[in-house]
Amino acid sequence: MFDQTKKSSHVHNICKFMSLKNDAVVRTLSVLEFDFCFHLEYNPDVKGYISQPHGFYYYFNGRKCRYTPDFLADNHNDQSTLIEIKHSSQILKPDFRLRFAEKQRVA
After folding, report:
1. In percent, how much of the chain has pLDDT > 70?
2. In this prediction, what percent of the chain has a pLDDT beyond 90?
3. Mean pLDDT over residues 49-57, rounded?
4. What's the number of CA atoms in the CB half-sphere (13 Å) around residue 1?
5. Which domains does the chain show, CATH number per domain?
6. Would you say 73 and 83 are in contact if contact means Cβ atoms under 8 Å apart?
7. Cβ neighbours of residue 70 under 8 Å, at least 6 residues apart?
8. What is the pTM of this model?
9. Distance between first and last Cα of the chain
10. What pLDDT sits at residue 2?
């Protein structure tokens, strides 16, 4: 596992969301992730959540790849869910779907 560095860049638009549920500022790497914070914040089934939790490694086409989910959400039964936020145009790409299936298998 590894930490995802949270620095601004020309690729990532760092946003800060003030979470009352977490009593903390949640840093996101895109506007889509920022918008999703509202869903997590107002979903009564979600007890708490964190952005960019520890990542993990997986193998794809014989190569070691790293992956950091966008969110880790905990419910009131202490079950955790990893969440990936992508634009709808990205989820239809065959490469994304193959990689995502492998990430789900490893997680």
Report:
1. 89
2. 86
3. 95
4. 7
5. 15-106 (3.40.1350.10)
6. yes
7. 28, 29, 33, 36, 51, 52, 83, 84, 85
8. 0.84
9. 12
10. 41
